[in-house]
Structures are given as structure tokens and as C-alpha cells.
# Entry
Amino acid sequence: MTSQIQPSDQDLWSTIAAGDEVAFGQLFDRYVRAVYNHVFRLTGSWTLAEDVTQATFLVAWRRRGEAAVLVDGSALPWLLVVATNTTRTEWRSARRWLAALRRLPPEREAAADPASDIVARLDDERQMTEVLAVVRRLPRAEREAVALCLWSGVPYGEAATVLGISEGALRSRVSRARARLARMVTDGNKEER
Amino acid sequence: MNDILDPPAERDLPPGRAARMRADLVTSIRRPRRRRAVRLGIATVATAAAVVAGVATVPRGDEVRHLAMGSGELSPTLHRAVERCLEWNGQMERIPLSINDLAVAAEQDHHGVALFITDTGYFTCNVSMQPGQEISGGATGARVWPQRAWLPGSIQRLLLVSSEADGGDVAVTGRVSARVQRLVLAHGDGQTTTARLVNGVFGLLTDHAEVTRDAELVSYDTAGAEIDRRLLFRPSDEFDHCYVDSAGTLVYGEPGADCRPAEPWGR
# Structure
């Protein structure tokens, strides 16, 4: 019987910093799902989430020489912030351009997706669009704090470190966001009546 | 958090996509020496282009707009974007491609899009060239494009980029059959923009428009008669009918009794 010990993020990152692409592949395998879903919750588009996820890992590779990437031994909070910035850069720089990129007819591999999965993903996008319609009314800092801490489940301490603010300030952002969202939802319900 | 603000459950990437993304990433980081050489070559071109652009096409501000129907019409900035697209394609080793395969390219507000059509496939690319920032973007394509010889009717939209999620300014490219002599985008607010048609390919770039979700692409024949009208923002793989080629083989849409003849396309 054999057992394999998974290398820690610290071990992986040290190897990646030395240019090891195998270790980079392991880091990708470990966190691609978390990054992909985080970006989806920011954009409401699974397609865009794929593009930004790929861009995020390219940025991670380019910045592999940076020492302060790990927070409490985890690379995830930093990756999620990189993903957030990548998403924001895309949308901000696109101000009057590139808000939606609709591509050529899907390649044959797209046909491999079961129809039920495609329908479910469309439902996800509809649901997320509704959520984002409310959340996007928050100030950007609060919105991103919600995505990072409440949706992606990054602990406050780790998120604060990687955002470069105090944990108290981050908790305040989330608290204010919660209060605003509650008011928005309540006001919305009143308007519907 | 309130239920109404709960996001959908998490998902994996679609089957095969994670592996492909991983392979693309590893490929792009694996060959530093070659990439560096290419990058140096591109940097030389880019520097030259930037200098020329400073004289010729107003590189500052958000007013630069240019539509090129082929490599012979590229502005210096668009040339730089296209070179970058070719570099990305080379790194991914996706499709045998040269600048001569460029069908349409457009730029606005420091963003460029390009559509290449080869003898067997296609490649499309989107480039962000913000001043002072690293050039970034994305690309997709297929070495083999089974539907290359056929259109779902007289027109097929291939690439659509818009400034807003549901409209604003748009850049649109695609293909038309030989019987289309004029193609117009009706914005949905009474305004229109006429596309350029060259060798079966069209390109269209609006100027400070407010294209709506109801916008339509309207095509006309040589006599000026309308022959097709379709929603701009409708997904390109969604059809009212199925289409079959001259052999009766289904080319577009779902199998059904009401299939129409697909129209042949060539350059």
C-alpha cells in the first residue's frame, strides 16, 4: 500500500518560483475550480469565467517571483484577488467596448456537453444576473468583499491580508454590504407589492 | 446572506475544458526561449507601429476607430494587434495562419478584434491595447471548420463585440452569400449602419451608437429587395429552421421536417 502526501502550497510555490511547470500544473489542478466559480460569481458568465480563469493563472505564472503570495500558507486568497483584478481590468478597460464577446459557432467539442448541463448553466447565468443586478449597486470595495468572503468563503483574516487592509476594515465592508443589500431587497419587495 | 442573493451552486469546468486550459497554459509557459525571440521580434514591430501611429491615427484618447477588410487596410495599431494575434496562435500551435488569412479587423478605444479565415478553419482574436498596460486578450479558433462551405441562409454572423452587455457600440463580422449586395444594421432606435462587404465577408463598426437588443441585420440583393432580416444579438448557433447542404446533409440546426437549403459560401 502506498500513500501520497500532497505538497503544501508553500512547497508548490517555492518550486513554481524556480520555474517548475509541473508544480504550476498541480497548483492549477488544486484551485482552478475555485477561481472559475469565483469569476463566474463576479461576471455572471461561465464563458467569461473560463477566459478570466486562464488569464488569472497566466498572471500567477508571470508573478511567480513574488514572495508575498501565500497567506497563512494558502495561495487561494491571492489567486482570487488576481482573478478579481483581472475581471475588473477587463470590464473597466472595456468601458465602452467589449462588454460581451460572442464567439464563433461552438466548436465540435461543445457538442460533448450534455444538453441538461447547458440548460443548467443557462439557468445559473440567469440567476446570477439577477443577483448581480442587486450586488452591483454596492460600492466596488464592498462588492468584492462580498464575493471574496461570503461567496468564495475566504476567511476574513486571509482576505484582509491579501487586500492589504485590516481585518476590521474588511469586516466593516462586509457588514455595510449586508445592511445595504438587506435594504435593497426590502425596498424591492415593497415596490413589487 | 439573504436567499435572493445566494449565488448558484459551484460547478466544474465543462468536460475537457480544464485539461485543455491546463495544456494551453503549460504550452505557453514551456518555451521561454522561443517566446522571448518572438516577443523581441514583435516588440520591434510594435515600436515602429507606435511611432507611425503617433503621426497617423491619433493613438491617444478614445476616438480611434478603424475597420480593415483584409491585411492591406490595417492601420498601424491594428497591424500590431494582428501581429499579436498571430503570435498567440503560434504559441498555442493551433492553426496554420498568416496575415494573408485576415478577413476583417476592427479597432475602437484601444481594443482590436480580428477574424482570420483559412482554407479549412478560422481563428478569431480580441486584443486590449491600453496605453501603459501590457497587451492582453484572448483567441479562439478551429483548424477544421466543417461548416465552412455553407451558410445558414444568406448571412452568418461570426463575431460580435459590443460596448454594453446588450448593445451600445458594436463591431460585427461574418459571412454573406453571393446574392447579398448590401447589408445594413438597423440599430433599433431608427439609426442604421451599412456594413462593408468584401469577398463574401462583411465588417461593420458603429460610431457612438446606442444599438439596442432589437437591432437587426438586414440584407438586400442586387435589385435592392430585402432578402433576409435577423436579430443581431441572437446566439449564432440558434436558428428558426434547420439547413441542409446540396447533398441533403444537415449543416445547421436540429433535425426537422422544415429544413431549408443552406447557401454555399466561398472566397
About this structure: Chain A touches chain B through 57 residues (CB under 8 Å).
